[in-house]
Amino acid sequence: MPTNLKNTVVLIAVGTIAWLIAGAAFLVAGSETKYVWTCVFGAALGVFGIRYTIRRSRRSGI
């Protein structure tokens, strides 16, 4: 895995983990469901972003 790709995947993974931590904090605090769902979709988009980045890298040969 090239360094640039590795750095990108790590950055997206950190953001995804941050969404998961925020979602857990909102669940524990008993916040409104729109905040929890925002975190769920943010984490899901992060997972999609990791998969997309790796797939694009393999196809383009970067």
Descriptive notes:
The chain has 62 residues and is an all-alpha fold. The protein has one domain (3-60). Helix 1 runs antiparallel to helix 2 (33-60). The mean pLDDT is 92. The chain has helices at 3-29, 33-60. InterPro entries: DUF2530 (IPR019681). This is DUF2530 domain-containing protein. Pfam families: DUF2530.
Runs in which pLDDT lies below 50 for 5 or more consecutive residues are: none
- Elements, N to C (H/E): HH
Question: Between the first and last Cα atoms, what is the distance in angstroms?
Answer: 10 Å
Mean pLDDT metric: 92
What is the approximate shape? elongated
Q: Roughly how many Å is the radius of gyration?
A: 14 Å
Q: What's the total count of β strands? A: 0
Integer tally of domains:
1
Number of helices: 2
What is the subunit arrangement here? single chain
Tell me the structural class.
Answer: mainly alpha
Question: Sheet with the most strands?
Answer: none
Helix content: over 70%
Q: Beta fraction of the residues?
A: under 5%
Strands, helices and their partners?
Layout: H1 3-29, H2 33-60
List the defining traits of the structure above.
62 residues; mainly alpha; 2 helices; elongated; membrane
